[in-house]
Design a protein that fits this description.
The strands form four sheets. Strands 8, 9, 10, 11, 12 and 13 form a six-stranded mixed β-sheet that branches. The chain is α+β, with helices and mostly antiparallel strands. The relative contact order is 0.07. A hairpin with a 2-residue loop joins strand 11 and strand 12. Helix 11 (316-330) runs antiparallel to helix 12 (335-347). The protein is built from 25 helices and 15 strands.
């Protein structure tokens, strides 16, 4: 017996049982019947502006009520969800018009049995190949298998969640309970005399039975065909009545697929070196096989990573746009490609279009880490800080071993002013492999020292963010020395993170004139590339309060096209819109 369930940022809704649960666990939350009806109405039409008349007719079909009754229902719903009046994590009021539910919503077709028969987690495959050139294969085969099964009727746990159990004794019942699945797939990859062997075992944890145990063997140059056979066999074992064509039958050139798998492994720990290596591998892959949509999708994501983190790749945004467009023309069901397209819209300043793209991505992507963190990046840029925190927290919990999640949480806690939490999550990100000298973590650590009144440590960390030839004390003593530092930087060195860094330092030195001058010159520079310069979360730091209170802030925000988003989805946290002007509500 099927039923609908919904998940949105921090919550799960069981429509059949009329229950609302927090994803962190615990009993069902108390929600009055009419407030629950309103929530279901919002969840059925996320992102749409629902008029007050429409909502009142739906909630009171046979009774005439005043608008105040609807206002009370919405207030109750906000209270239960934990949304404060100045936040816009879930419900945005369009004055005089209605309400819009802005959280990302995922509809889940589940079974009444919580261990639904078609729910699967793919654990990291054990790699038994000793050679360095194949060190990536175990992870990459498992990751791409998850992606191959994404469009089936199977509910599959994201690999960033299942990979949390790497290098640990497998307690199948505990793993299945943690990941909320019934089926677990384990595998081993080996090679002998040029033949690649992938041995898999599919277990039904509820019954303790083995559903599938089989070894797939192919010439190592034909791994793409092997993967296709593996995916089909797993689908057939789990869902014998699967529709034809669930797994694409397209043939991928073996050399292209081998490079794609290597690139996948490099994306697991993003850094400048790993991102550039992944781009080179993916370029080779699409040069060999121009119709390889998944490779183009992953390539688009890597290009957007370069723009977001300021990695020096010429024309990265245009390359990302071209690859995403081509990938979507080949396969518009790939949520990660839609996510890349959303980031491209953010970088171009079309925040409203980005919001729509993210909603599409969130509904399609099997990995909330991909859609959730990039959506949090947008929410931070537009000043919806608590919504960003909710998105990042959800993404980090489903992918606890990935360093980008805690890094984003550290940034958000720092922007909000939760210094202890910022430090804690920064330590987690570093432990998981994120470099403390790579932006934005390096800038976060500077502010931690600054706020703790450790000027010597803060200055030492600031020096580490500069090119080596400029790492000399004295750059941060005054606004004049900062201006001299800016003048000494080459155009390549004045990348997006460095520009935001200098704007912040100017403000902290009390020089708003130089800060605004650099902000507008940065927008002039980025406009030539068709962007607004990547993430603008720096605007919402407590240290930037004087910058935001200045009359020049509104014109800058208009250049960033932020008012377009605020008029549609609500102003930033702690602010209101008054006659087209942003005013503090604190």
């Amino acid at each position: 017996m099927a039923r609908h369930q919904f998940e949105f940022e921090g919550f799960r809704v069981d429509a059949a049982q009329r229950n609302l649960y927090a994803l962190r666990g615990g009993p069902a939350l108390e929600l009055p019947p009419r407030a629950f009806d309103a929530l279901l109405h919002f969840l059925e039409r996320p992102g749409e502006l629902l008029s007050k008349r429409e909502l009142m007719k739906a909630l009171w079909p046979s009774v005439v009520v005043e608008e105040n009754s609807l206002n009370q229902v919405v207030s109750t719903l906000r209270r239960v969800l934990g949304e404060k009046p100045s936040e816009h994590r879930y419900i945005v009021t369009a004055p005089g018009r209605g309400y819009r539910f802005v959280a990302n919503v995922r509809r889940i077709d589940a079974m009444v049995d919580p261990g639904a028969a078609r729910s699967l987690a793919v654990l990291p495959f054990v790699n038994q190949i000793a050679s360095h050139d194949a060190a990536h294969l175990g992870d990459a085969v498992a990751i791409d298998l998850v992606r191959s099964l994404a469009n089936s009727r199977i509910r599959i746990a994201p690999h960033t969640a299942s990979f949390a159990f790497r290098d640990t004794p497998v307690d199948t019942v505990g793993v299945a309970r943690t990941l909320n699945v019934r089926l677990l797939l384990e595998g081993q990859v080996s090679r002998h005399d040029g033949v690649l062997n992938v041995a898999v075992r599919l277990m039904d944890v509820h019954t303790g039975t083995q559903v599938l145990a089989r070894t797939f063997a192919r010439d190592e140059r034909d791994i793409a065909t092997l993967q296709n056979e593996l995916a089909r066999a797993i689908l057939q074992a789990i869902d014998p009545e699967m529709p034809p064509g669930t797994v694409a039958a397209g043939v991928v050139a073996p050399a292209a697929y081998a490079n794609y798998l290597k690139a996948l492994a490099h994306t697991m720990r993003p850094s400048f070196e790993s991102t550039i290596t992944a781009i080179d591998l993916l370029r080779e892959a699409v040069a060999v096989d121009a119709q390889f949509a998944r490779a183009r999708s992953l390539l688009a994501i890597q290009y957007t990573t370069c723009v977001m983190f300021g990695f020096a790749v010429p024309a990265a945004l245009e390359l990302a746009r071209a690859e995403a467009s081509t990938a979507l023309s080949m396969d518009d069901s790939n949520g990660e490609t839609h996510c890349a397209a959303a980031v491209i819209e953010c970088l171009g300043g079309d925040w409203c279009r980005a919001e729509e793209r993210f909603r599409t991505a969130h509904g399609l992507s099997v990995d909330p880490l991909i859609s959730g963190l990039r959506c949090a990046y947008m929410s931070l840029s537009v000043g919806h800080l608590h919504r960003a925190l909710q998105q990042a927290d959800y993404a980090s919990r489903v992918a606890p071993t990935h360093p980008i999640g805690p890094q984003m949480l550290a940034i958000l806690h720092q922007v909000i002013g939760n210094e202890d939490e910022a430090r804690r999550y920064a330590d987690v990100a570093i432990t998981l492999g994120q470099s403390p000298t790579l932006s934005p973590l390096s800038d976060l650590l500077v502010l931690i020292d600054q706020r703790a009144h450790r000027p010597a440590e803060a200055s030492a960390r600031k020096l580490q963010t500069l090119p080596q030839r400029l790492q000399m004390p004295g750059h941060f003593d005054s606004a004049t020395s900062l201006a001299q530092l800016e003048a000494a930087l080459t155009l390549d060195e004045l990348d997006p993170p460095m520009r935001k860094r200098l704007i912040l330092w100017y403000v902290m030195a009390g020089d708003l004139d130089h800060a605004y001058d650099l902000a507008h010159r940065s927008l002039d520079f980025h406009a030539r590339e068709g962007t607004v310069g990547g993430a603008w979360g720096v605007l919402w730091l407590p240290e930037m309060q004087a910058f935001r209170a200045d009359p020049r802030f509104d014109p800058l925000a208009r250049r960033l096209r932020l008012f377009d988003y605020w008029n549609e989805y609500g102003p930033p946290d702690g602010y209101a819109l008054n006659a087209g002007t942003l005013v503090s509500s604190g």
